[in-house]
Amino acid sequence: MSFQQPHAHPGLDDLLVSPAMMEDPYPIYARLRREAPVLWSERWQAWVVSRYDDVAASLKDKENLSNENRQALLFNHLSEGERTKLAPLRHYFAQKDVIGSDPPDHTRLRALVQKAFTPRTVASLGPRIRALASDMLGQAVKQGRFDFVADVAHPLPVILIAEMLGAPIQDRPLFKRWSADILGFQGTGKTTVELASVSQKSLLEMFDYMSRLIDERRANPQDDVITALALAEESGQRFTRDELLATCNTLLTAGHETTTNLIGTLVRLLLATGDSWSQLKAEPALIDSAIEEALRYDAPKQRNFRRIKKTHVFGGVELGENQMIFQLIGSANRDPERFDNPDSFDIRRMENDHLSFGSGIHFCLGAPLARMEARIVLETLLSLMPGCSLVEGGFKWQERVQFRGPGELWIKS
Ligand code: HEM
Fold it and tell me: Are 295 and 343 in contact (CB under 8 A)?
């Protein structure tokens, strides 16, 4: 079979780590799709895939790509001594959990986690989400102006996930810190031992905490996700303790930053784009399509990654075993080959097959929950502050390049 060797695109590669990637990555994505749809990035040490069809195919490719031990590649460039220092973190990344496994383990682990995410369980969280949203926005309305991220979009998902995992109310700040620390070193370019050590410390603290909670729930089952996971059995097989701890970490980190970004982005786009907010007030039935459009327009998780398990040819270039591939979801969602007027935010968009929750066997298990959180927050905002607007100059992006969403979003009630 013939294939091309990758061309060097130093200019484009430099743009991937430039401030423009935080401010507005979409012109960069457009160039990638046109000029180098499968690009080797020296800066990211990974293949970068940007067209919709390629991202979708790559997310579904179980034959050549793997989720197992994919983070191990992040440590490849470190010295032996640094790698030894990070042994506990590397051990954790070598564990299989629902997101970090391939079939057949993935099939078993996903079935176990799904037991904790049945439609009934998710629906039962509705009243709690509504109470949290009413409480938070009720406080905010009294202030007149408030930071929607700090007061609602950030705390609400973290409180919910901490409660789902069975943590007592006073321990919520721990979850917030652990989540930020654990994710901190990923997506910053090449891993540094300093940042990875912060992640390792918080991860070990979290595992210690969750291990005690799991023992407690096995002894005294309660009606929560952690009990369901601790007791989950599928074909007679339980989770191992390492798998269970890794899954708790996935739920904490996967279910939190992403949802914060979705809720913040949704409200920002509605208040900032033309008459979207008025349209929604006049026709609240548009809420669901507005949420899908926010998911498409500014994907909360901009990129996904896999380990290449077999050398193979993709998009005309050879991808080597044990290299990393980044699937640019944020770019796929703006591909003009797939979406009409991809750069316009249109809450009436009918066809919206975005890839923000992934695709294939790892499709996001928390998607119904994230959508419900977004819907309830929006309904509550519409009812408590129908006349709200953005405060001028009261916006800045959050700072992690793999995610996209507001870090601050000031609103006047
Ligand atoms: C807007 C919010 C969210 C976004 C954008 C998002 C995005 C994603 C994406 C792109 C994947 C695929 C990963 C891959 O293919 O490797 C994924 C998987 C996953 N997500 Fe989410 N997620 C969100 C919310 C949540 C929530 C709230 C939870 C749970 C509380 C959650 C739990 C999971 C789990 C467990 C997986 C792994 C599924 C598997 O590997 O089979 N996510 N998510």
Answer: no
β-bridge mates for residue 38, sequence order:
49
Secondary structure (DSSP) of 265-318: HHHHHHHHSTTHHHHHHH-GGGHHHHHHHHHHHT-SB-EEEEEE-S-EEETTEE
- pLDDT tens per residue across span 221-261: 987 788 888 887 665 667 788 888 888 888 888 888 899 99
Which amino acid appears at position 60 of this protein? K
d(CA 45, CA 399): 20
Residue pointed to by tokens 């080959």: 337
Residues 295-317 have pLDDT tens digits of: 999 999 999 999 999 999 999 99
- Name the DSSP letter for residue 153: I
Question: Ligand 1 centroid vs 404 CA: distance in angstroms?
Answer: 15
Cα-Cα-Cα-Cα torsion 295, 267, 172, 257, nearest 10 degrees, comes to 30
Give nearest CA residue, ligand 1 atom 21: 364
Pocket of ligand 1 (CB under 6 A): 59, 67, 98-99, 110, 113, 161, 250-251, 254-255, 258-259, 262, 300-301, 304, 356-358, 362, 364-366, 369-370
Of 364, 378, 398, 400, which is best to mutate to test ligand 1, by the most ligand atoms within 8 angstroms of its C-beta?
Answer: 364
- Bridge partners (DSSP) listed for residue 46: 41
Cis status of the peptide bond prior to 284, with omega within 30 of 0? no
Contact 203, 99 (CB under 8 A): no
Pairing of strands 303-308, 145-147: unpaired
What distance in angstroms lies between residue 342's CA and the mean position of ligand 1's atoms? 24
Residue 59's pLDDT is 98
CA distance 229 to 307: 27
C-alpha 44/C-alpha 27 separation (Å) is: 19
- β-bridge partners, 193: none
CATH architecture for residues 10-412: Orthogonal Bundle (1.10)
Query: Which atom of ligand 1 is the closest one to the Cα of 110?
Result: 41
Q: Give dist(CA 12, CA 32) in Å, integer.
A: 7
Which ligand 1 atom is nearest residue 250's CA? Answer: 35
* Residue stretches of the chain with pLDDT short of 70: 1-8, 186-190, 233-237
